[in-house]
Amino acid sequence: DAGVIQSPRHEVTEMGQEVTLRCKPISGHDYLFWYRQTMMRGLELLIYFNNNVPIDDSGMPEDRFSAKMPNASFSTLKIQPSEPRDSAVYFCASSLADYGYTFGSGTRLTVV
Amino acid sequence: DAKTTQPTSMDCAEGRAANLPCNHSTISGNEYVYWYRQIHSQGPQYIIHGLKNNETNEMASLIITEDRKSSTLILPHATLRDTAVYYCIVRPSSTGTASKLTFGTGTRLQVTL
Which of A85, B22, B57, B63 is deepest in the core (most CB within 10 A)? Predict the structure, then answer.
């Protein structure tokens, strides 16, 4: 199994641009989570899905952030418009019910 | 979710056992103790979890006190590759569902030669 696959690994964009982060969960996993990590705030849960349905998006910082999961093998996290304070490492994770989460390698986003 | 308290940092000599403590005095009866670690620049990695019995797997052992108010993660023979931030997390677990993991600041373990 290739694990959770995230793309791109690194993204540098200008303020105001749209950014789309992608995630392919492990086949068969029914939960998908998006986290953000910064030095100041640590690891924060943004949103999670169960069977492709968003369950809790209370961690999404504002309306500029949106996440979708059109099918069981793909999810996106979109920021529009991006701001410098969105610079962080964004992690996607998947799990099968209550078994341990498997995290991807993350996307390092820099907004200049 | 119950709050956890961990030391900010610890050192361990390579080849020795690393014992990482975690206090969770407000843990509820249905809450599990989970341990994850994050090696620099990588995503967090699941290590082990338990409810009230001690648990062991190929990576580590988890010792939970009888009153469940604290636990210790044991890496029996630490290597330089075990240098990481270790997170102790308490969360409820229900059959067939998952609940969100809330990460604290963890313990930064430095394994030295």
Answer: B22
